[in-house]
Specification:
Strand content: 15-25%
Number of helices: 16
Helix content: 40-55%
Number of domains: 2
CATH architecture of the largest domain: 3-Layer(aba) Sandwich
Number of strands: 15
Oligomer: single chain
Structural class: alpha/beta
Shape: globular
Bound molecules: pyridoxal-5'-phosphate
Length: 462
């Protein structure tokens, strides 16, 4: 079959996630056929540097035979069995032990799921159950953040704060509230951002970070502290726009949660497994979460697997006081997925890839990335570890474009055409490359990003 055949079948039968099918146009989907290292190859013979590691997940890079071998071996040995009703199997048990060894010291248990969305569904049920067991059944409200993404199941959408998602397929899960995000460039420095919060002029980033934590406290007081079960957030907000909070933010949030005895859920689906240069983003920010949803980099995306890392406080209550938790998925701890995840973690560890992000390749990316701020289209170039964003601005004013101009989408398409995957979130361009990316490949990424910015500028001038 040729590209056109795939495209015709695709158009006829395949409803893609997050795709406006009517707007697909004559061109059709780009058909990706194979990949190795940090490159994907399409059916037209183009080799494209994957600056997004798929969907923020292929941490180990593509084409690792060790993971193929782990899957093959496990599929022969035991392709499937569950872990319900007092059964277990070696791959899931080993993976549980490995995860708890890599996690912060107070985390000693894991509940497996098939994805990050299922992990966040599990979180919602677990925190409400925890407080019910503690004799505080009214503690049911969970506070998330506007513009956050926590998955596409009903609970994931409800915990997340994406307005276009909330507008479709409702009603949402009750008793979930949202507070502003610590998005300095979009909402602190320069006017109204994607969460629709007003401008906060005349502050520095650190004051803004504290203001965002104060908004959380105000929301807790509004709902009544006796009614609030948990706060959920990513260390660095990924799909919202690679939003790196001001340094003041997390310490201030921690203090608020401690004051009102509210559980902290840190969504590690993107930041976990090395993205910020630590095994978990929580470690970078000195957080001790009660629950940590994980997925993506856990298996480097080779097979679907997720989970919730459970801190001692919650785990002890669930185990000692809870009895049976009526919750689980057919594929919780799937043996083949678990075996691949285990091998993936072993390789990340043996090759020192997490430390390399913190000590070598992350700082290298930061220095090259920051230089893009000199480009007239770029208002800010920020990065931490191997996650980064460019804020596109109108060169005439230095301020953000009106949302309707679609400059980010234009830049994304020009990027792809030029051989680089960058994602656009509004007019914010995002990168999150595989952790194995080399210095030369980072240089190539920067050159291609600059070329796409130039091409975007030229198109705007037409
Ligand atoms: N949480 C975060 C922070 C995510 O970025 C995602 C997916 O992008 C999810 C949860 C949902 O994970 P999944 O797509 O595996 O359901």
């Amino acid at each position: 079959m040729h590209t056109r055949d795939y495209q015709a079948l695709d158009r006829a039968h395949y409803l893609h996630p997050f795709t406006d099918f009517k707007a697909l146009g004559e061109e059709g989907s780009r058909i990706i056929e194979h990949a190795e290292g940090v490159y994907i190859h399409d059916s037209e013979g183009n080799r494209i540097l994957d600056g997004m590691a798929g969907l923020w997940c292929v941490n180990l890079g593509y084409g690792r035979e060790e993971l193929v071998a782990a899957a093959t071996e496990q599929m022969r040995q035991l392709p499937y069995y569950n872990s319900f009703f007092k059964t277990a199997h070696p791959p899931a048990v080993k993976l549980a032990e490995t995860l708890c060894r890599l996690a912060p010291a107070h985390v000693n248990h894991v509940f497996f799921t098939g994805s990050g969305s299922e992990a966040n569904d599990t979180v919602l049920r677990m925190v409400r159950r925890y407080w019910a067991l503690k004799g505080q059944p009214d503690k049911q409200w969970v506070i998330g953040r506007k513009n956050a993404y926590h998955g596409s199941t009903v609970a994931g959408v409800s915990l997340g704060g994406m307005a276009p998602m909330h507008a479709q397929g409702g009603p949402l899960v009750p008793k979930i509230a949202h507070v502003r995000q610590p998005y300095w460039f979009g909402e602190g420095r320069s006017g109204e951002g994607r969460s629709g919060e007003g401008r906060t002029a005349g502050q520095d980033p650190e004051a803004f970070g504290r203001e965002c934590a104060a908004a959380l406290e105000a929301k807790i007081q509004e709902l009544g502290e006796e009614n609030v079960a948990a706060f959920i957030a990513e260390p660095v907000q990924g799909a919202g726009g690679a939003i790196i909070p001001p340094e003041s933010y997390w310490p201030a949030v921690k203090a608020v949660l401690a004051k009102y005895d509210i559980l902290l859920v840190v969504d590690e689906v993107i930041c976990g497994f090395g993205r910020l240069g630590e095994w978990f983003g929580s470690v970078h920010y000195g957080l001790e979460p009660d629950l940590m949803p994980i997925a993506k980099g856990l298996s480097s995306g080779y097979l679907p697997i997720g989970g919730v890392l459970v801190g001692d406080r919650v785990a002890e209550t669930l185990i000692e006081e809870g009895g049976e938790f009526f919750h689980g998925f057919t594929y919780s701890g799937h043996p083949v997925c678990a075996a691949v995840a285990q091998r993936n973690l072993e390789l990340l560890e043996a090759e020192g890839l997490v430390d390399r992000v913190r000590d070598e390749i992350g700082p290298y990316l930061a220095s090259r990335w920051k230089a893009l701020e000199a480009h007239p289209l770029v208002g800010e170039a920020r990065s931490l570890g191997l996650i980064g964003a460019l804020e596109l601005v109108d060169p005439a004013t230095g301020e953000r474009f009106a949302e309707s101009r679609g400059v980010g989408t234009l830049c994304r398409d020009l990027c792809f055409a030029g051989g680089l995957v960058m994602r656009s979130v509004g007019d914010t361009m995002i990168i999150s490359p595989p952790l194995v990316i080399s210095r030369d490949e980072i240089d190539e990424l920067i050159d291609k990003a600059r070329a796409a910015l130039d091409a975007t500028l030229a198109r705007l001038a037409e």
